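Researcher: I'm preparing a figure for a lab meeting and need a structural model of a single chain. I don't have an experimental structure, so a prediction will have to do for now. The sequence is pasted below. Please return the structure as tokens so I can convert it later.
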Amino acid sequence: MATTDLSVPDTGAPAPAGGRPEPARGGLLQSAALRGSVTFLAFLVLFSAYGVWLGDAFLSNDARLLDVHQNAPVLLLGLAVLVTLIAGQFDLSVASMATLTTFLAIGLKITQGWPFALVIVACLALGAGGGLLNGLLVVRLRVNTFIATLATGGIFLGLSAVYSKGTQLSPTSDSHPLPGWFSGPGSLGAFTNKVPSAVAWVIAAILLVAAISAVLKRRPARIDAQRWRIVAPVGVAVLALVLVLLGADGIVEGMSWTIVLLLAVAAVLWVALTQTTFGRHLHATGSNAEAAELAGVRTGRLTIWAFVVGGVLAALAGVVLAANQGSASPDVASGYLLPAFAAAFLSTVVLSTGRFTVWGTIIGGTFLVWVSQGLIVGGLEFTWTEVVNGAVLAIAVAVSGVLRRDGR
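Model: Understood. Here is the structure written out token by token.
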């Protein structure tokens, strides 16, 4: 059977006699580049207002990087749910899996004395197994995705309580110690343990190239392609230079190893979802499973793989949480489920016009944290955090939806 390239969207633009599509015409809001960037720009305006209002209390590189460091497990969970959302499914078990692997990352070492490399492998393997269980329930047994993952989430959370006997696990003088590179001062989980400057700037350069590549793909219809290939890289480079002059070099050199791990995982996932057949077919499965099957895509197998990848990322989030905290508490990651979904759904409006994206998840989740932190620095009680998060998500998605409708 001949296959169809399902990765190329239909723009809906009429083709003239010459066979080449006619550039879209209309008002400013009909520019997909603008509609996909308006939420991002709105966040920047808000943060500028925070800077004027709060000054250095908000515009602190260390404070904002600490926010990303502490919320790395949440952002990893955002990536976990992103994969299944792209496939058209919901995974409500990721936070419970993260709680379970947090306990195992601590307990298997301090209680059972396992070699720590084996501990990490066991945690990731458990995540893959949990994802496989979810996939089989949803695809093979046709259990509703909400019911299946809610049930398995309860199982994972229950297993963490059984393993820990409902108490906190932390190293003691009588237990096996956690590796010094994993948790504690100067470790992976320590914010004060910064990456070498050379490594940080290499990462920044890679991100700059990725940003230029992304901007090149967002050419407004009214700008000639050849001109855009010149204007876009220069514009991104000038913006990067301005940010460095404003002090962004402190952000680059202030990255912790946890943040670098988060960026590395995001980069690998981005390549898998955008540059491979797996990613293209996964998007096709989530967009229209029936059409994808007619084109030869094995949608069932892809959906199972999406759950497996999501399970591994959830397990990794638990390991990172264990490194950051050096201990495990009951329900330690249960409160991360809503922020994780919020980050994933914000990706559809941050530098996007309705598609789930990896970098949109990282940026959207980070911006969501910064909005709350700015208000807390300004005097708002921390108990309002979830209210603010929900309001920001609702407003961002609603405004983006209005702009998309107006741009049609």
